[in-house]
Amino acid sequence: MRVIVTGGGGYIGSIAVERLVKAGHNVTVIDNFARGHPASVHPSATIVECDLRHGAATSTAVRCAQADAVMHFAALTLVPESVREPGAYFETNTGGGLHLLEAARKAGITRFVLSSTASVYGEPESLPIHEDAPKRPINPYGQSKWMTEQMLSTYADRYGINHAIFRYFNVAGATKDRGEDHDPETHLIPVALKTLLDGSGQFTIFGTDYDTEDGTAVRDYVHVIDLVDAHIAAIEQLDQPLGAMNLGTASGFSVQQIVDAVERVTGQSLPITYGPRREGDPAALIADSSKARETFEWSPGNSTLDQMIGSAWEWFQANPRGYKD
Ligand code: UDP
Fold it and tell me: For 77, which of 45, 114, 182, 247 is 20 to 30 Å away at the CA?
């Protein structure tokens, strides 16, 4: 299949490209490389440098790719940044999403996979979270993605664009050649590993007074390879609409448990300080991912803490300067 991957220079997008190429697909990456890295793009993919905030350029890029399917990863994804700069999130995620949908519609593309987030649920009423749970995002990142989901559903109904929406919980891990290289890095596992690698500075646990077993926030972590493989299964099944699906393991780990696992896997101890909660962070997010499991016979078999932290640690040790090397 010919597949457009937006954000193919980013962490998840670049690994999606790697796995798509391995599965025999023909890939065009659309990325503005504001945060992604050209060096992370698999050499077999065609690169089109294009910013989704520009509608006309996006339409041209999509039309020229002559694609059968779109995987849309390109987005701003940091909760604290979205609280500080909501407009940037609405412009890139929601506005960019609209431009891409219009471009896909005009190009006659009927398979569309959207990368979304558990942040659309906000503070859930019960765990694990089912796809039908109320959507009440508590930060602009979640709002921007929820609006994009709604636009996609409307386009799907109106124009017959078969869609799959994946709501990610927390994604971690690396392949041998590709991993996380964000600037600044804010995600729990890479921040902890980089603190160890740098050998200087403190690692801060944000919030110790959550209503959880040990007082730190609980998240559901899935290996990036498992996550991406659900997307590849989806494009192959999108001769009919699939709707929204959670991607997680249905088990939660607290920040403290992750920190303990990082120390165990690396054999090093983290210099830990305890700080206040980070704005916009819910207490606990755990996925009910039975729909994805049933739809694709999906099973997140790589998503143990040891595999996620171990593969990320190997990648950081091999690439201490990320893609700058
Ligand atoms: N976190 C932390 N210290 C850090 C980075 C993250 O305590 O240096 C916490 C964060 O407050 C949240 C959890 O780890 O409760 C997961 O955060 P992350 O940014 O990795 O993902 P998010 O859940 O925000 O998408």
Answer: 45
